[in-house]
């Protein structure tokens, strides 16, 4: 989508969906708080994903399973407060939509009504299609997520590239049929992502899925070099803010210890 103009207005779900197949790819970055959302939004991303990846990069868990709906509502409300233009999409966390379509609608509704998100994201394909359709009928826009779905980590036996092409393609088609407006494809071979992108009428947003998707998403902490827990092959760091932060705090400690901070310019006379 085109760069934000001086007067920004929110990107809408229909606008995001209509970007399918355009030469200019869609850009999505995660954020979990107001400050990060302001920075990412001002940089001109099309959508901000309040990902349940906050379980790993914010909360320090080994995976996303412990994240609760209340935490997602809270972090979504922080992000919405810092966002003027980007479409805010919030993840439904583990076991808040898998039980029944009714549960999915009720919990997705909380992310919109209390969190202020414009849309929700759900993992899974054929098995999630009914829940997606129920949300869409209730006017809750849904982004799907196929391939390596992190909430399935125990079934997959780890975070592994997913290669079952026919199954993943069927999942993508089921999500499209259920009425989702976009689809994240995570950690699949590039040629499979290209096949899915050609097969569905909704934009595909890749992460570890090669260059042929309609857009890309990266986790904020990965993009900025803030997270050292693990570094998947698909991550490109556009800054080394982890190292810059350590250096800044080391410099502050050294100046306080030497007595050179605070200086006269920081004093009230
Ligand atoms: O939770 C998340 O941040 C995600 C992205 C990695 C797509 O689902």
UniProtKB/TrEMBL annotation:
It catalyses: (6R)-5,10-methylene-5,6,7,8-tetrahydrofolate + 3-methyl-2-oxobutanoate + H2O = 2-dehydropantoate + (6S)-5,6,7,8-tetrahydrofolate. Its EC number is 2.1.2.11. GO terms for cellular component: cytoplasm. It is found in: Cytoplasm. The active site is at 186 (proton acceptor). It is an enzyme of class 2 (transferase). Pathway: Cofactor biosynthesis; (R)-pantothenate biosynthesis; (R)-pantoate from 3-methyl-2-oxobutanoate: step 1/2. This is 3-methyl-2-oxobutanoate hydroxymethyltransferase. It comes from Fimbriiglobus ruber. The lineage of its organism: Bacteria, Pseudomonadati, Planctomycetota, Planctomycetia, Gemmatales.
